[in-house]
Amino acid sequence: MARFIVIHNVAVEEMSQEQLVDLAKQVMVRLKPGVEWISSWYTSEANKLFCDWEAPDEEAIRAALGEALKVYPIEAVHSVIYVNPAWYAEQSW
Amino acid sequence: MPKFLSDEWIKALQVDINQSEPYARAAERWEGDFYFIVTPEGSMTGPVIYYMDLWHGKCRQAYLVTDESEKEPVFRMTAPLSVWRKVVTKELDVIQGLLTRQIKLKGNMAMIMRNVKAAQELVECCTHIETEFPS
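ok -> structure tokens follow
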């Protein structure tokens, strides 16, 4: 399965805790088999979200995001390759 | 050792905040007051409300409030004693607590998110206080 980093601008100045949590829960409900929201990182300096996804393609991620795209519009989607530093700590190869 | 839920404890936190350079830097643009509401658990007979006026990296006021209508703070964070205990002892990240609604927030969540570092430094100040927790 392909891996993606999706960069979002956080478009809202004001948001309640309820709205934020509900949006995240709705994304979880919309996840189809083979689509996984792995993690997200938020930076307050740039007011952006960096989200790590596993999905067959970009469209599957957009479909899962649904309404959240209004609050977190996508700035860029990058197809990425996962690299784990632990691979280099192993001495078996 | 100050008891958690006492006025002495919040005053000790105020002193620590006002001596913290990391907090002052992280919160230099912060303007907004809080109620931190501890809902009852165990031996507690009712909610305990701390008021804190946080302004540009300093804590201007901090005290125990007996009547919730006494102030109209910009933010209200509410959680049971066990959750606040985890926050104060850094077992639970305050942002994780908010994002999972273990801590209920009334107020602009986006503003809190943009000031994560200030929130974390405030919790760091809490850990400097030797605290006696109620059973």
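The mean pLDDT of chain B is 94.
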